[in-house]
Amino acid sequence: MERSTRQRAAIRAAVDHAARPLLAQEVLELAQQDVPGLGLATVYRNLKNLVEAAELQVVQLPGENPRYERAGHQHHHHFQCRGCQRVFDVHACPGNLARLAPAGFTVQDHELTLYGLCAGCNGA
d(Cα 52, Cα 60) in Å, to the nearest integer? Predict the structure, then answer.
C-alpha cells in the first residue's frame, strides 16, 4: 500500500474510532499509532482532502480550532467538556426553534452546543 494511502487510512480510522469530533492534534496522536512517522502538516493536508471529498465534515465551535468528524451524520448537536475540552456528539435536538426568533424572522437552520463536564471529568 502506498504511503499516502496508509496515512489517509490511519487518519480516517482515527476519526472513525474516536466517534467524536477531533482536533487535528488529536487525529495526529491517534493516527501515529498506525503510522509512527506521521506529521501534523500531513494530517492537515489529508483532513482538507477528506473534507473536499465529503468524507469528513468540519465542526466549528465559537472561539475554537476546527474539529473533524465523519460526514453523513444525521442532524445533531455537540457537547464540549469544560474540564478536558473534548467535544462529543449529542444525538438529540430540541426541535423547531422558530418560536425563539423575532417576529417576522425565518429560521433556516440552527446549531446548539452544550457545555459542562463529561462523565470522565465529572467523576462518573
Answer: 16
Cβ neighbours for 59, distance < 8 A, ≥ 6 positions apart: 21, 66, 67, 68, 69, 78, 87
Query: Whose CA is closest to 15, among 61, 75, 66, 67?
Result: 67
CB 27 within 8 A of CB 47: yes
C-alpha cell, 19: 466517534
Residue 1, C-alpha cell as written in the block:
500500500
Predicted TM-score (pTM) of the model is: 0.82
Cα atoms in the 13 Å half-sphere on the side-chain side of 15? 24
pLDDT tens-digit series, residues 33-81: 999 999 999 999 999 999 999 999 999 998 999 999 999 878 889 999 9
CA 79 from chain center: how many Å? 11
CA distance 25 to 112: 24
The 8-class DSSP code of residue 80 comes to E
On whether the CB atoms of residues 50 and 11 are closer than 8 A, the answer is yes
Grid coordinates belonging to 25: 492534534
- For residue 21, give the C-alpha cell: 469530533
